[in-house]
Hints:
Oligomer: single chain
Mean pLDDT: 79
Number of strands: 15
Strand content: 15-25%
Strand order of the largest sheet: 2-1-5-4-3
Low-confidence stretches: none
Largest sheet: 5 strands, antiparallel
Amino acid sequence: MTLYAKISRTLSLLIILLIIGVVLFMTIQWFSTLRRQLGREAFDMALTIAQTELVREHVPKENGYIAIQNFIEKLRLKTRIQYIYVLNRDKRFYSNPKPALIGETFSSTLVDVVLKEEKARIVFPSFFATYAEAVAPVYSEGVLSGAVVVGMLNGRIYQEITRNLIFLLIFMFFIMMCGVLVSFALTSSIKRSIRGLEPEEISFLLGQKELVLQNLKEGLVVVDEHFCISMYNKSAETLLDLSPSDIGKNYKDYFFASGLTEAFERHTMLVQEVRQGPLKILLGKYYPVSDSATGAFLGLMASFEDLTVARQRAEELTGMKELTQALRAQNHEFMNKLHTISGMIQLGEIDTAVTYISGITKKRQEILSLLSSSIKLPALAGLILSKYNKAAEARVSLQLDPHSSIHTLPEGMRVESLVSVIGNLIENALDALIPAKNGRIDVRLIEDESNLEITVSDNGPGICPGIENSILCKGFTTKEEGRGYGLYVVSKIVEEERGSIEIDTNQWGGAEFVVTFPIKRAGAEST
């Protein structure tokens, strides 16, 4: 039997039992009311007969029973009262539904009390009593001369109930049908709420969910509709330094709050990097959660991934990419030089070819020797070599200062950030020198205990007056549309890494960019 059948059957049974209980209670109350009403009718009838002139006149007489019996029987038959007794002072019957008992003595405690106290009495029937009885004294000329006993059996009550039984049954049936419909509606609502799943299926899914969540490598944090943390997994506990005491706290008190707030305001998924101190960067994915049927807001969910491993892979890929680009540029350049050497040999200019080869080899060895000895970051060395070859193809001389040296990255900085800064500065200089002749780019990378200083200068036309404050803005360019992002990226990285950038004019009249990064960051020791 399914859960919904059990719920429906149980609720229907409970409602039916409740209705039966209510109807029984109402019936008992109704029965009790009718019994009391029956007793009151008997009492009123006894008082009325006791004050009747005919009864008061004939009770004291020896043969008064003749008139009284005739009168009382007619009255009893008209009123459907079960029995009416008229007694004289000696408690002998002057009226009885059974004429044979006329003159016999009636023994009754209630009659004795009434004759003694000279006061009318009533006996209200109990639930199991079969009658209601009332006794009233009879006075003749102010003297107590007898009593009237009126009795009504419970049959009158049953007659009243029988007359209303059909109505009662219809009422019970209607209420039970309403109860069954309510039960069905409630069961259907529960079924929709739990998506038609059985308890075993719900238990299984909860176990699966717990197993999956706790074994995810990404840290997962769930925020409820009141913006309080309601759940997190083991990875989140490690990555975000969460503890059980954080459950129920407002997420806005935590460093990852901005992404959740933005995702909620946009009503869409958001991906962004999150800094946890100066040395730790996480990749956060934020999702607002809402009811697919009603659209009601249910909460927020965020997953976090440590970028340490991804960063290492990115550095390797960046190095490979730069090396590949350098090899492609070298291959193109070498093919041109090989064709030149081949032509010289065919023309018999052997000495000239040897001199040409020596000159090429010397320049190549100089740059390779400087990169291998001074630049200890493979990705950066590959970048500079690639730009060197690209500059050579464009007839631009790229010179690396012989005093340049980089052995380690600034604290907490990614190698791709440094590669992006230097690459964009060299590209910007190359763009400025494309129309010029005898173009020259000087690159200097100086590292000391406090700072890493990067200088890129060229002998191009320099920076136009009036654009010094706009050159680092997003999308600003003096070239064709779609450019203007290189220097903006440089400025963003400098801002994130807490560095500085200076723009000046060099001795040739060209542009000079000086970027400085601190080797150590303030507050890093406490992280």
